Amino acid sequence: MTKPILQVRGLSRSFPIGGGRDVQAVQDLNFEVPAGQTLALVGESGCGKTTTTKMILRLDSPTHGQVLVDGQDVHGLRGSGLRDYRAKVQAVFQDPFASLSPRMRVRDIVAEPLEVQGHHSRKEIDRRVHEVLDAVGLRHDQARNYPHEFSGGQRQRIAIASALVSRPELIVLDEPVSALDVSIRSQIMNLFKDLQEEFGVSYLLVAHDLATTRYLADQVAVMYLGRIVEYGPSEQVFNDPQHPYTKALFSAALPSHPSEPDTEIMLEGEIPSPLAPPSGCAFHPRCQLRLGEVCARDRPRPEWSDTGVMLACHRGFG
Amino acid sequence: MPTSTPVYGPDKMDTPRTSRTLPRAWSELRSWPLIPLAIITLVLLVPGLFADILAPYGPLEIDMRARLQPPVFFGGDWSHVLGTDRLGRDIFSRTLHGAYYAMSISVTGIVVGVVIGTTLGLIAGYARGWADTIIMRLVDISLALPAILLALALAAMFGPSFQSVIAVVVFVLWAYFARQVRAEVLSLRERDFVARARVAGASHFRILRRHIFPNVINTVVVLATLQVGIVISLEASLSFLGIGIPRPTPTWGILVADGRELIVTAWWISFFPGLAILLVVLSVNLFGDWLRNRLDPKTRQMR
């Protein structure tokens, strides 16, 4: 396996909620993104995906654990190390109507990661802006326009161009297509694939849309209530999900043909409040395959299979 | 009888429109508040800049032979169009010169107040924490203190002067701007484009300058315009009370105050400067409302 660009070790984040109590948003995450590959984080809303990306992007600090980019702890960086990190890691956010400064021209939006580095000439910046506009399929003359003159899909292309311009090694994609029309989702997803082949960039993809995930991801980590419950190669996890939550989540996707039987596993109840997480396995109150007392009492320890899948469930592989 | 032809005949309907750009320019111009703009220009800006050339007399020129002369259509003559006060000073010339003070005080006071208020508002909203707490408590203090009381204190300490009036204006204005700007910055700083700029590695200063400030400047401009009327009436009230710019400077407030005792016998002394205040304040407010609607992207979409 190639050297990982991103390593997350024992990452936890809790937020104080007053009265001396804390809410655990993310607990003890461990995963890696190998260079040139894509890792997808999937899970319901509120499971901690966004908190995780914020810590990876250094927009928030972890309470415990480390985020390593190229082997360096992101949250200990200062000065030139920090500048290198900022050039290496970029992001594309969910809503292209919110993520582009409304009063900046496309050229300035795209060029910003280079301009802040401060050691590129104007000519060099213009050349690289044109290069990435080509890469994402926008015309050079559109660089003079303002974001409101573009459609959602075009805006997301602008955001992607901006994320690419500093030639990053890792791009965090936070639900990059969920705000787009279905008709242009596939275009943008294909664009991500092409860019990965062309530039060798790695992706950390956050999604709740399983079709996107399956198409783009090499590896998948399934999160539930701030913890990873199953983690492994995309093929393995999609074709043979082990954790009862993963099974339920994947079964909720519509069958590929209307005549196929709908095998959706209905989960009972709401996702529990992180303020009062269930004892033992956090999923046990909703689990249809729970074993009994052990699930409510003990937290399952992660196990690894021969095929490289991690599972946190008392049932084990089977 | 075949003498009359129908008015709405087909040949009339088919007549092509000759020019499409002219009507568009005309309708664009018609959406402008022309009357308020004309009043602002004629009553405030032109006299403010060119009072020395336009005024037939000096503002302090005394002519005891022409004391209390009424305006031209009220028993006076063309030598003093708007009449004279009890020292024979020309009301028209004094009102023109008053525009200079109204203009310079509102421009200076608003510019200084806006710069201070906007800067502190940006800092408070962006940095939050203790900087925010301190700045917002200062805003509370500033808003709680009556302007007249502060003007009295300043006049008592330093004597009434141009500077003390500016100080009062700045003191009244900065807090409004600080509070408004802070509120907008608080919401802007959580937006995704700010997060994106941070991920790109932009410094706090750059984020404020490139991503946040351009999004609050519209509000600031509109608010500043709306303050012109407030400042002119504030200056007039201070001068009227004798705690603003000292006599015999011909500010509008002083001119109105001068005619106070003679309001029954020589109404024109107070009336014309008062009319100037009324027209300018009203026009500036109407213009500010129009500007706000025009710069607000939500209302602009509907046009």
Task: Explain what the structure shows.
The complex is a heterodimer of chains A (318) and B (303). With 318 residues, chain A is of the alpha/beta class. Chain A has one domain: Rossmann fold, CATH 3.40.50. Chain A is 31% helix and 22% strand. Chain A has ten helices and twelve strands. Chain A has helices at 49-56, 79-88, 106-115, 122-136, 152-164, 182-199, 210-216, 234-239, 244-251, 293-297; strands at 4-16, 22-34, 38-42, 64-69, 72-73, 89-92, 170-174, 202-207, 219-224, 227-233, 303-304, 310-311. In chain A, the strands form two sheets. An eight-stranded mixed beta sheet of chain A has the order 6-7-8-3-9-10-12-11, sandwiched between helices. Chain A has a four-stranded antiparallel beta sheet with strand order 2-1-4-5, with helices on one face. The radius of gyration of chain A is 21 Å and the shape is globular. With 303 residues, chain B is mostly helical. Chain B has a single domain (34-59, 80-302), classed as MetI-like (MetI-like fold), CATH 1.10.3720. Helix content of chain B is 71%, strand content 0%. Chain B contains twelve helices and no strands. Chain B is flat. Chain B starts with 9 loop residues before the first helix and ends with a helix. At the A-B interface, helix 2, strand 6 and helix 3 of A face helix 8 and helix 9 of B.
How would you name the CATH homologous superfamily of chain A? P-loop containing nucleotide triphosphate hydrolases
CATH architecture label of chain B: Orthogonal Bundle
How would you state the average pLDDT of chain A, rounded?
Answer: 88
- Low confidence ranges of chain A: none
Mind summarizing the main beta sheet of chain B? none
Distance from first to last alpha carbon of chain B:
49 Å
Helix content of chain A: 25-40%
